[in-house]
Give the backbone structure.
Amino acid sequence: MRTLGLIITLLLSVNLSFAQNLKPYILGFETTENVAIIKDKIVTNLKANNIYTVGQYQPAEDPNRWVIVFTSPELKSAVKSVGGKTGFAMTLRVAITSENGKTIVSYTNPKYWGNAYFQDHFDKVKDKYSTLNTHLIAAMKASGTYIGSEFGSNKGLSTKDLRSYHYMMGMPYFEDSVELEDFDNYAAAVAKIDASVKNGTPNVKIVYKVTIPGTKLTLYGFALSGENGEAQFLPIIDQGSPKHTAFLPYEVLVNDDEVHILHGRYRIAIAFPDLTMGTFSKIMSTPGNIEDLLEQLVD
């Protein structure tokens, strides 16, 4: 009996540990309304809760997907207080996906991505994230019948694992970002990317641009098309349900005089933490392809 009790205690402990783990996405609500109708409702309700849309687009040119990218005073304040590569945390995303006869609204889990990008600095900004989370839930409740369940990983990741995440030994960490280019100064870096956007870059289209006043940080989001773009790699990695539509778009950060992207083998893995090595091997060229596409912005 004592052995059985010990086993039950251990199982309960493991299950509790999993319950406390974080997953990359949150299921907001399901609806029968079409994407065109629901996206406008969500944008309105986000704004009513002090959350501001900075861009929208159709990922992978898939008519069953839509992404709303947003920022908020809390996100900007958190990034400004720490700076550097936490600039990748300036935005989060709401996804609208038509699947299995329903329209599913999901969003990136603030605490998951906050811990991943702020790492040990997250404790300094956790109150800001808590406030944002409350506003997001209010916006979702105003838009539909709120569900609030996390998804995107079977067991999820602990905050400790998120803060030092890498897919496996030899794979990049958050800090192992790819420097696309360095310039004489911040203004020159931003001007170059803006000029590339204005003049047009093959298979690269801007979704949003966010700058935090008083910093030398600007975050861009880009849609990637063509034979090596989103339509090529997203169907391979996004096999489950609900879909990980809020994984996109891909970000480019201007941090002072440097232009960075997160390494594809980190950015894809953190968004799909249960991705099997077999599936990952099918997109082995994708990280390099993404880098090549975005590098055009600074050439």
Observations:
- The chain has a mean pLDDT of 94.
